[in-house]
Amino acid sequence: MTQQQRLNALLELISERGNVSIAEISDSLDISAATARRDLTTLAEQRLVTRTHGGAAALGTGYELPLQYKIARQAEAKVAIARAAAELVAVGDSVGLNGGTTTSEVARALGRTDRLARTDGDFGVTIVTNALNIAYELSVRSHVKIVVTGGIARRQSYELVGSLVSNTLSELALDIAILGVDGLSSQFGATTLHEGEADVSQQFGKVAKKVVVVADSTKMGKTTFARICRLDQIDILVTDAPVPAPLDEALAAAGVRVIVAK
C-alpha cells in the first residue's frame, strides 16, 4: 500500500468513525503504530484531521473528504457508471455536470469517446459545468464545447457555488443534467453534504429536460445534509449494483428508470 493509498484509507476511516485510536488504525489498515502516527501527522499538517491523545478525530460532523482523497474510492464502479451515463448523451446535446468523482469520470468518458465527434469539425457536445477540474480536463477535447459557470470556488470539491452560478444557469436550456450525489433515499431523495452545492445541482435540474443521477451502491439508502431533489424529479438513476428493495420500490413508484452499469 502506497502512502497515498494509506492516507485515502485513513481519511475514510476517520470520516466513518468520527475518531480513531492508533491501535484501531494499525488493526484496520494493517500498518505499524509508527506509520500510523506519521500518517496522522501528515493529515493534521494539511488540516484534514485533528490530532487527539492517542489518535485523531474528524474536523466536525458531516465531515467531507477533499476531492483528491475520494478518487480511489469505488473507482471501478464509478468508471462503469460513467460509461453507462455517457451512452445517454447524443451528438449535439447540451449536458450539465456538477462536480464530484463520479461526474468527473462521466466527463472523461464523454471526452474520450469518438461517438460524439462530428465530421464537419463543429462541437459534438456542449458541457456546462461548475466544476473547475472537469472544465480543465475537457478543455483540450476538440469535440467538446465547454461552458463554465461563474461562482466562488470550494477548495473541498473544486466546485463553483453562489448566486453567479444560478445567474448563469437561469439563462440556459440543457438537454440533460448528469448529477453526482452523496446520498439517495426514499424519504429525502437525492442529497449532498454542502448546501451551496445542493443549490447548484437544483439549478441544473430545473433547466434540464432530463435529470440523470449517477451514484454508486454506497450512496443507496443514505441521507446527507442538503436536499437536491425528490425521487420523482429524477428521470434516470445509473448505479453499479441492484438497488436494495425498499429504495428500488420507491424509485419505481416515482417513475425513475434504473440502469445498473456493468
Provide a compact summary of the structure.
The protein has helices at residues 3-17, 22-29, 33-45, 67-70, 75-86, 101-112, 132-138, 163-169, 195-206, 245-253, and strands spanning 19-21, 50-52, 55-57, 94-97, 125-129, 144-148, 152-153, 160-161, 174-180, 183-185, 189-192, 208-214, 226-229, 236-239, 257-260.
Kindly list the characteristics that best describe this protein.
single chain; 262 residues; alpha/beta; 10 helices; globular
Note down, in words, how this protein is organized.
It contains ten helices and 15 strands. It is an alpha/beta fold and 262 residues long. The strands form four sheets. It has a seven-stranded parallel beta sheet, sandwiched between helices. The longest helix is centred in the first third of the chain and has 15 residues. The mean pLDDT is 91.
SSE string: HEHHEEHHEHEHEEEHEEEHEEEHE
Kindly report the spatial arrangement of strands forming the biggest sheet. Answer: 6-5-4-9-12-14-15
Q: In percent, how helical is the residue content? A: 25-40%
Strand content: 15-25%
Instruction: Please summarize the sheet with the most strands.
Output: 7 strands, parallel
Question: In angstroms, what is the radius of gyration?
Answer: 19 Å
Mean pLDDT level = 91
Globular, elongated, flat, extended or rod-shaped: what is the shape?
Answer: globular
The first-to-last residue Cα distance is 27 Å
Which residues form runs of ≥5 with pLDDT under 50? none
Helix/sheet category: alpha/beta
Helix count from the secondary structure assignment = 10
